[in-house]
């Protein structure tokens, strides 16, 4: 089996390089050139086999998702991705597995102009950690703490597909390939995040379920919210496989959507709709922010509704 340095060489040989990478893989650290007038946005996510993805997930899908979840964080901050590092803990040094992993990882990196500039490799249970770096014009990053009472609450795309796939996987019964694709290959809404600069007031990516992630915005901003369950955007596939109440559970508490939940003044609604239409990306107003603290969920008939769970938390049960 190839050793650690052979693995690093294999990764370096396949990694692309941006013009603003002064020094990439090969030194003790990367040297990167920051453009004038921009701020650096940094995020880090770890994916663990059996927690963040089923053990049998294809290596190309693991590679894709490992980067996608980080790009999603940058998108929620309105940052354009630039560079990343990759730390891999691998059970063994399998060239074929690594090449397949890099197929997924680097395809997404190339799509978004991201350079892999460093990382680490070690032996152990399969664990992937990515740190991603993005750029945003000074003062334009979307924060969780900037939402205000009276603003609209929006979400991009649809919610619940990935959680639906995970529910089907756990039941070991019939499964939808479309739902599973949303679990294995989430789409980071990078272009949407950039388009929301100057239009949205606050943002967060939906990784742990809408109820939990919106709750972080409410807590940081000191506001409350009303969400209308009948407005939650749902794919036709999810509707075909789950009844209404179960869909709400998946959309609010399931996680792994990697859509952007953002808030904005009602006066910006038309501009937001036009910006999202230019990207061919649906975006839906699902509720409003209120001065009274707390999250209130209303059925289409106007009644209050409480989900069995509000979102995923580590150390309280695993995803997969």
Automatic annotation (TrEMBL):
Q: Which domain of life is it from?
A: Bacteria
- The UniProt record gives the binding positions of Mg(2+) 3 as 28, 73, 205
* Xref: InterPro entries: PurM-like_C_dom (IPR010918), PurM-like_C_sf (IPR036676), PurM-like_N (IPR016188), PurM-like_N_sf (IPR036921), ThiL-like (IPR006283)
Domain PurM-like N-terminal: from-to ranges: 26-136
Specify whether Magnesium is a keyword of the entry.
yes
Q: GO: which molecular function terms?
A: ATP binding; magnesium ion binding; thiamine-phosphate kinase activity
Q: Give, as one word, the top-level EC class.
A: transferase
Question: Which protein family is named in the record?
Answer: Belongs to the thiamine-monophosphate kinase family.
Q: What is this protein called?
A: Thiamine-monophosphate kinase
